[in-house]
Amino acid sequence: MIETRALSPALGVEVTGVTDLLHPQVVSRCLEALKWRGVLLIRGLNLDDEAQLAFSRELGTVLAPGGKEIFKVSLDPSVNPSADYLRATFHWHIDDTTSDVPAKATMLTARHVAMVGGGTEFASTYAAFEALPAEDQKRYEQLRVVHSFEAAQRLTHPDPTEQQIQAWRSLPTHETSLVWQRHDGRRSMVIGATADHIVGVSPEESRTLLDELRDWSTQERFRYTHEWAVGDVVIWDNTGMLHRALPYDPASKRTMHRTTIAGEEAWA
């Protein structure tokens, strides 16, 4: 029998009692839990790549950035040539903010875990927005934000070389509403490491407000921290959950296998 348990008051649900991961009832319950709770945990599944892809395809269309449906998350350059860029994931962020249509969800399976650190934190910008005073909600709904790859990379490389800057700026920026109202009426905030500046606002005021909203949204009451065990599967709503990896020793061989589910609704 499938059972669910809240991971924190504001977000997250753990699913237990799963015997057939691809059963329509299991898939339906997972999609419903993901929509309303933002983060879904199933412990000890120990999925191989084939099983992970099969389950991912039940949740939606699997994206293949760089031609690969499975992306290995590791700070070891021999495992992931983009390891240096992944250091930006230690900062709160939302994936795909520079795409017209953001990924709907992300799935990670834990293959190797760090002995110390290496957890993943999530924070619900749905809950954070709903907890704001009404006058602040109305103000923020009028604002727009420009997101860039450069903004995130500058957090880990505050003194970049000209070559780094050129590489970052070769990637497109994207403008979104600060508050995203979905077709179903739900509202979340599009903030985090890629949020470069607010349109029509000075850089200083932009930075102050964006940092304040990040700090507000990542309070403990809106947050869940997952400590990984080998075999765990975590899926989250990429469009409304801020997330970050907690620091760990790159020599720990911590490795996650990631699949990404295509989105269906463009940023507002």
TrEMBL record:
Could you list the residue ranges that cross the membrane? none
Q: Which terms does the record give in the GO molecular function aspect?
A: dioxygenase activity
The record's keywords, sorted A to Z, are: Dioxygenase, Iron, Metal-binding, Oxidoreductase
InterPro entries given in the database record: TauD-like_sf, TauD/TfdA-like, TfdA_dioxygenase
Keyword Metal-binding attached: yes
- In this chain the TauD/TfdA-like domain maps to 4-260
UniProt name for this protein: TauD/TfdA dioxygenase family protein
Its lineage opens with: Bacteria, Bacillati, Actinomycetota, Actinomycetes, Mycobacteriales
